[in-house]
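Now for one protein, fold included:
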Amino acid sequence: MDTPAANRKVLVFLAGIVWSLVGLGLILAAVNWLASADGGVVYAVTAGIIIGGAIYYFGFSRLAAANLTRIYAQAPGKDKVCIFAFQNKRSYYIVIIMILMGYALRHLLINKIYLSPVYLAIGLGLFLASLRYYRRLTRQ
């Protein structure tokens, strides 16, 4: 059975969209929690932005670069590659773990003012890294 395949540009675009939407979703969750917070908003936002920049620079930007390299290195000579190839297999397991951790954190009795910097940081890191995918598309 053949795997679903797509042009490499489509994979790059899909990866960018997925990373952007997840990043924006996390940022919006953090903003909603911060909007209803009584205090500490400035500290939470500042921490989220600083940590988000570090997550982007040291983590997600490198992961996005590795994903781009993999997309363009797969199946040399073929026009299309597997549509799930925008991430490696290990990354799919990491995504599942992150979803489960996010679910668990949201449902614990933790004040959302403490959780919002985490969501803001990861969301910002993902969104900034998604821009690498779009940049790659505009360079071609």
